[in-house]
Amino acid sequence: MPTIGAVRSESTGGGSTAQKRRSISGGPISPPSPVKWKSPRRSVNGSPNTPSKEIEKRLYEPPRKNLSETFVQKSKWNPRDSKQMNAVKEALHVSTVPSAVVCREEEQNRVMNFCKACIEHGKSGSLYVCGCPGTGKSLSMEKVRQALVHWAGQAGFQPPDLLSISCTSLTNNSDIFGKVYQILEKHELRKKNNSSISPLQHLRNIYSKKQQSTGMKMMLIIADELDYLIARDRTVLHDLFMLTTLPFSSCILIGVSNAIDLADRFLPKLQSLNCKPMIVTYRAYSKDQILKILQQRLMALPFAVFQPQALELCARKVAAASGDMRKTLSVCRSVIEILEAELRESINSLDLLSSEKRAFDQQSLPTLDSLKNQEIDIVRVDHMATALSKTFRSPTVDTIQSLPQHQQIILCSAVRLFRAGRKDTTIGELNKSYVDICKSVVVPPIGILEISSMCRVLSDHGLLKLGQARDDKLKRVTLKVDEADIAFALQGIRFFRNCLLQ
Questions:
Q1: Which residue in 147, 418, 127, 417 sits closest to 281, CA to CA?
Q2: Helix or strand (DSSP H, E) at 263
């Protein structure tokens, strides 16, 4: 019966074993067996036909670096340097515009291609951009505006007139038409300006008949915070989109809003008016996307500020709560403030020990030196955990987590209603949303009287605000806490997590 070694030598080629034995005993050495080339995926050499230069390139080509590795390769950060500290704060500030908008390339391309098609064909059009707060909508539109002007100049088209306006800055909703008309007045279109006619009627007259002047260009209108028009006057919203349907209109309208279901609520009306917009939705940022955006902002700094694990913890927590990039930057600025406080505390401790240095003997002096050597040169995971706890863990979160189940369902129903851009609702409408959630999970709902009573309890906790009305169903309900606090408090329960994601 062959031994294990014999079987192994036979399977791998007994010639090599015999060769070793003969070489030891002084006998003749047989010629070596031919080299067996491995698969290119398993071997650097690849195959016998691989050129030597290619093999050398593979052997000496440095490995590609991941984005997270750049933090390790950078020099240490000195938080005591005021210039470096200010550079970090500026990089993490919301108002700091990055050189490029990452993780939104697909959405930007859709908007850009839409605007290009309108300019190339000389036709008007409307587009609706929606998404949760802090998902990069306004920043993307600014980049699209700049890129469109640059493209038009290179492609030989006349650059469009530009109007970027936030609807929150309007005293009256109809003022937006006056802003549009002011741009048209720069051309030869104001031959007979009748002050008794409203700017909207002027625009309708201009876009309803062919203009003799060739000075009129395409106009790009970016209306941000469009949901404010809904809350005040819906007819203004309809009239604004209808400008793009007039026969000689030159408007490219882009409406930006936090109300995701705006198109669903008003799409039938807009479709009946022949002004159905194209829709581009910005989803909440994922953990990987938040991490990539943070890394992009910090790449410009010549030193490492955060441990990669600290950044990953921040991205994971914010993505689970809301996916809001502005909230992420707020957490990062908060952790810098925590680091500054720790640095001041360490400096005060060193000053105290230095003042009492004479009271120490020679054996205790190394303790002072060791304290001086303890440099705070990076944001650690414990720093980030403290900042996240201050941001998301609050008395409000503790209160929500201690509520009975049905009161938590009521808050979840309110979040789903107000996420659509609404500022308030009635107890009757809140009860309908509450019943729908209960039915989806086969939980017996309570009656409308109990709902009204629980709303009063939530109002006493400072979570809801109740208005006055004779009928309980008609009482207005307003959410007094941030939606992110409710999402963070209930994210540990799968039922509520799924409800809030819908």
A1: 127
A2: helix 262-272
Average pLDDT over residues 180-193: 68
CA–CA gap between residue 203 and residue 172 (Å, rounded): 17
What is the DSSP code (8-state) at residue 359?
G
- pLDDT of 488 > 90? The answer is no
Question: What is the CA 356 to chain-centroid distance, rounded?
Answer: 51
11: its two tokens: 């399977």
Residue partners of 224: CB distance under 8 A and separation at least 6: 137, 138, 141, 164, 165, 166, 167, 256
Rounded Cα distance between 252 and 158, Å, is 14
Q: What is the pLDDT of residues 344-362, one digit of tens each?
A: 887 766 656 566 554 555 4
Distance CA 236, CA 176 (A): 9
Residue 221, pLDDT above cutoff 70: yes
In this structure, what DSSP letter does residue 158 have? Answer: P
Residue 162 has a pLDDT of 94
**Total count of residues recorded for the chain:** 502
Count Cβ neighbours within 10 Å for each residue of 166-176 and write b for 16 or more, e otherwise: ebeebeebbeb
> Which tokens sit at 447?
């009656």
**Number of helices (H), then strands (E), in the chain:** 23, 10
Q: What is the mean pLDDT of residues 359-366?
A: 48
Which of 136, 147, 138 lies closest to 109, judged by CA? 147
CB 133 within 8 A of CB 91: no
Query: In the numeric block, which tokens belong to residue 351?
Result: 């000053």
Q: Mention every residue, 6+ apart, whose C-beta is less than 8 A from residue 34.
A: none
Q: Name the token pair of 311.
A: 């950044």
In the prediction, which pLDDT does 20 show?
A: 42
Q: Give the pair of three-digit tokens for residue 399.
A: 């209160």
d(CA 181, CA 197): 12
* Contact present, 311 and 478 (Cβ < 8 Å): no
Helices (H), ranges, 402-426: 405-418
Strands 251-257 and 219-224: parallel
Sheet of strand 251-257, all strands in order from the earlier edge strand to the far edge: 161-166, 219-224, 251-257, 125-131, 278-282
Across 41-45, 192-196, 433-437, which has the greatest mean pLDDT? 433-437
Average pLDDT of the chain? Answer: 79
Model confidence pLDDT, tens digit, residues 402-439: 899 899 999 999 988 887 667 789 999 999 999 988 98
Beta carbons of 136 and 195 less than 8 angstroms apart? no
Q: For residue 434, give the amino acid letter.
A: Y
